[in-house]
Amino acid sequence: SAAGAVAAVDLGATSGRVIVGHVDQSAGRLDLDHVARFPNGPVRMASGLHWDVAGLYRDLTNGLADAFRREPAVASIGVDSWAVDYGLLRGGRLLGEPFHYRDARNEAAVDTVHARVPFAELYRRSGLQFLPFNTVYQLAAEQAGGWLDLADSLLLVPDLIGFQLTGARVAERTNASTTGLVEVATGEWDDELIARLGLPASVFAPLVDPGASVGPLRPEVAADLGAPAGIEVVAVGSHDTASAVVAVPMRAESAAYISCGTWGLVGVELERPVTTDAAREANFTNEGGVDGRVRFLHNVMGLWLLSESVRWWERDGEAIDLPELLAAAASVTGEVAVFDANDPRFLPPGDLPGRIAEWCAEHDVPAPRTRAEFARSIVESLAEAFAGAVRTASVLSGVDVETIHVVGGGALNELLCRRTADRAGIPVLAGPVEATAIGNVLVQARAQGFASGDLESLRALVAQAFAPRRYEPAAR
Ligand code: LFR
C-alpha cells in the first residue's frame, strides 16, 4: 500500500487535539505530528452544564488550517469525541448549546424512561450498561422541555462537527451505539423502541460505518482551511473509546484493555455481544466497535477523580504541579483509604476531596488528610476498581486475561500502572498514550489505501511504532 498522511481531530472532555498521522504500513511507519492542542470543559450557564461547541469548532478548524500548512498532502479528516452528547438542530441551525453529560437534569428522566420500558428490556435490546447520562435519558429530558418538537435533526458531537465541515448528516455507528437507541443484535436504529418512547424517528440520521466517506468539505470550509478542493471527512470510530481500542496493541483473545483518560474504560474485545443477566447486573456494556467488533466494558470513573480534585484545590489561584503531586503520592507509606471509585456521587463537578472524605466517614474508613494522601487514595481506588473490572470482564466473557493494556493519558501515570498490575496480579503493558488519535488515523489510512488488513494488522503496526512499557505485578 502507498504511504500518506491524514488529519485526526480528537476531542476529549478536558482537551482537544489535531494530529497529523503519517502512515506507511509496508515500511512499518506510523508517526504523529501534534499540530494543535486546546482546552475543553463544561461551561455552567443558567440552563445548566454545557459544551462550548462553537469554541471547539473554532479551535479545531484553526488546528486543521495549521495541519494543511504543515502537511499539504493531508488526504482526509476524521473526527472523534466523547460519546452520548448531541446537538439538536432545526433547518441546519443549532437549538442552543449541547448539554454536558455531567449536567444533573437526567435524574428525573431516568425514572420516566424506565416506567415506559424497564431497564432489563432496554439492556436486552441495546446491550448498553446503565449510565444516567445515556442519550436515551437525556432525550426524555428534552422531550419534557418541548425541545424535540422543535428539532428536525439530532447529531452526536463528532457527527455535528462533520456536518459543520461538510453539510452532510450521518450517524456514525460506534458512537450511535452509546445512545441506547441502537439494537445490539442488528446495529440499526431500534425503531420500535424509539416509537415506544415517543421520540420522533425522523431526527435520527442514516447510520454509517467507520471508513465510510461523510462527504467533501464545503467549499467555504476548504477555502478557510487552505485545503485542496474535494478533501473528504471520513467516518472513523467516532466514539473516542472505539478509536482507542483500534490502537490497543493487543491479542484480543488473551488481553483486557483500560482506555484511561477522564474515564477508565475497562474491558475486552469480543466478536459477539454478551447480554446475560450477569452482564446486566455487573453493568457491563456492549458498545459497537470498528469492523463490527464488540467493546464489552465497564465505565470506571477514571482520571477525572484526580483532575477534578486538583481543579478544586486550585480554585483559589494556586497552581498544582501534577507530576510533583504524583511523586508525593508514590512516597506515601502506610495504608490509605480505598473507596468505591464507581460511586455516582463522584460524577458531578465540584468538591471531590470533600466527597471522598464523606464516603470514608460513611464507611468507617480513615479519610486521607494531605493532598498526597488523597492522590494516593485515588490511585489505589482506581487500581482496585480496574483490577475488579478486569476480573469481571474475564468471568463474563470467558476471555482468559494474560495481559492488561493501558492506553490513553493514564499510560503516563506510572504509579497507577504499577498498582493496577499489583492489584490485578497480571502484567500491565502501558501505551500508546495517543491511542485514540492513532485509531482515528488508522481507520482513515485504511480508507485511503495507506494501510490495509484487519484490526490485527493495524495493531501490529501500532506495536511496532509505539513499543509499550511493561509493569510486572509485585510478588505477593
Ligand atoms: C470517554 C467516553 C466514554 C463515555 C464517556 C461519556 O471519553 O467517551 O467511553 O462513556 O466518555 O461520553
Record field, number of beta strands: 20
Query: What is the C-alpha radius of gyration, as a whole number of Å?
Result: 21 Å
Average pLDDT confidence is 97
Strand arrangement in the largest pleated sheet: 16-17-15-14-18-19-20
Short description:
By secondary structure, this protein is α/β, with parallel strands linked by helices.
Question: What features would you describe in this structure?
Answer:
With about 475 residues, this protein is an alpha/beta fold. The chain is built from 18 helices and 20 strands. Strands 16-17-15-14-18-19-20 form a 7-stranded mixed sheet, sandwiched between helices. The longest helix is centred in the last third of the chain and has 27 residues, at about 370-395. The radius of gyration is 21 Å and the shape is globular. The relative contact order is 0.14. Beta-L-fructofuranose binds near residues 240 and 299. One of its GO terms (cellular component) is cytosol. This is Rhamnulokinase. Belongs to the FGGY kinase family. One of its GO terms (molecular function) is rhamnulokinase activity. Keywords: ATP-binding, Disulfide bond, Kinase, Nucleotide-binding, Rhamnose metabolism, Transferase.
